[in-house]
Amino acid sequence: MKKKLLSLSVLVAAGLASYGCSQITPPVSQAAAQESAPATKNLNPLEQTGRPAKDKARDAAYKPLELFAFAGITPGMTVADIGAGGGYVSELLAYAVGEKGRVLSQNDTYIYDVVKGLEAEYKERLGRLANMKDLGQDVAQLTLPARSVDVFWLSTSFHDIYNNAPGQALQFVKMMKTALKPNGVVLVIDHFGDKGQDNKALHRIEREKVLETFQQAGFKLQAESDLLRHKEDLHQQKVFALGGKTDRFILKFTQ
Known about the structure:
There is one protein chain. This protein has 255 residues and is of the alpha/beta class. It contains 11 helices and 8 strands. The protein has helices at residues 8-20, 30-35, 53-62, 64-71, 88-97, 111-114, 118-128, 158-164, 166-179, 199-202, 207-216, and strands spanning 4-5, 78-82, 102-106, 132-134, 149-155, 180-191, 220-225, 248-254. It has an 8-stranded mixed beta sheet with strand order 1-7-8-6-5-2-3-4. Helix 1 (8-20) packs across helix 4. The two termini are 13 Å apart. Residues 6-14, 21-26 and 33-40 have low confidence and may be disordered.
């Protein structure tokens, strides 16, 4: 199968066109709407009022508009954010899919004991964004209705799913295939790991392991991007030591 490596200039143009021209009202809960100033109608997720300063500081490195364009995120979609953490990406997705779309966010509960303050940050977003919903299940138990999701978003979360239990990871990927709509997409962003090293301890994964698992579940690699490559990262350090500048692969899978 031929893989497509999309040019970054095309992604940037598509992202700006998608998120800079259309107009919607960003979704907020009724309580938040009563307490806040009127929300902007600009669809651009990065330009929403009330976004935390620490979120805005992440935007340049994470490149959300380009990633959303690459994944094909559009208003009205249902997107499942697996391993959402504090909800930085979930909030941006909530703005991108608009009031007619939904973001189904998921965290394994153990993460709240590992990262101080994460649960409070996550729940604050859930209370503020009307179209962001917590799935309330760990990956091992997660089930979703057939053909109900347009995009599964896995941003530096699959390495933990796989490294903790490769067999369970395969079953999870098969579940995603069942839950995807016919033209649905799974986007996997993760830290490059090299063969022969302890990638579980480093919180990394071999790109080839991801490809193998998804292919076993019946997926096809439609495209990949080098948008988040950092070749100065030699893949030998724990990812937390690199300040968000890890070398990451981006894989777009379809059925």
